Amino acid sequence: MRSGYGWRAAGAAVAMALGAQLVVAQIGPRHAAADEAEVRPASASGLGRVELAGDGLTLIRFQGMAILAVAADAEAFSKEAVPDWPVADLLLLTPGRYRGLAPLKALRSRMPVIVAGQHGATTVAPPGLQQLHAMQAWNTFDLNKRDGRRGTRVQLTALPGAPGTQDVAGFMLELGDRKASYRVYVSCEELDGEALAGLPRRLPGADLVLLPTRHAPQLLVLQRAVRAVGEPAPLTAAGYAFKPLKR
């Protein structure tokens, strides 16, 4: 018969293992969508790319999947500009000074739309926008795109900010599978120097961070072996290439 100490030690080991996976925890309601459209062939190198697609528009491409991140207070977020947005499989709207959703009525695509549903607030979808997902902290959304034999997967998790807060501070995008993936954190809030320095501890599984600005987001690469955080760099039309990492 095991002693009480033995059971406590085993429980602590399990808790530590779960804590290491915190950034991709399956907590709260889960959303899912599937797109059976044909997947465009991936490049031979298997690279993905993050690129600037216009003022306030960031396009993330990976093996035929396209995710468009839009800043709600950018000039591109208007009913006149929406029809000219790049074609994407998923739209991620990050909050800004303007929190309305009316411009989304001009969308020509029926792609899923992800917004931050802040704690205690009610998000009402504009008429005709059927695939609006207002995410609370720790909600997840899965999108799979297949061509019958191979497919591409993205898992999105809404994450809170500082300890004790309940509002959504950003979204973690995991592109790939359990064997190899790349994790992009799209922040919904501007971060100062102290907050940036704490990102490796707050987001231990992230590989790249997108920081919001009104025109072009800032890129911050997080290196696993380096605790120090470098300086963010502006995202350009040339983009930033990435490759899935073994997990």
Principal-axes shape call? globular
Specify Rg, calculated over alpha carbons.
19 Å
Give the termini separation. Answer: 37 Å
Report the biggest beta sheet as strand number plus sense, adding barrel if it closes.
9 strands, mixed
Order of helices and strands: HEEEEEEEEEEEHHEEEEE
Could you estimate the helical fraction of the residues in percent? 10-25%
How many domain units?
A: 1
Strand content: 35-45%
Structural class: mainly beta
Number of discrete helical segments: 3
Rounded average pLDDT = 77
Low confidence ranges: 1-27, 34-44
Let me know the number of strands: 16
Keywords: Signal
Signal peptide: 1-25
Topology readout:
Blueprint: H1 4-19, E1 30-35, E2 48-54, E3 57-62, E4 65-71, E5 90-94, E6 113-116, E7 132-135, E8 140-146, E9 151-160, E10 168-176, E11 180-187, H2 193-197, H3 199-202, E12 208-211, E13 218-221, E14 233-234, E15 240-242, E16 245-246
Parallel strand pairs: 1-8, 4-5, 5-6, 6-7, 11-12
Antiparallel strand pairs: 2-3, 2-15, 3-4, 8-9, 9-10, 10-11, 11-16, 12-13, 13-14
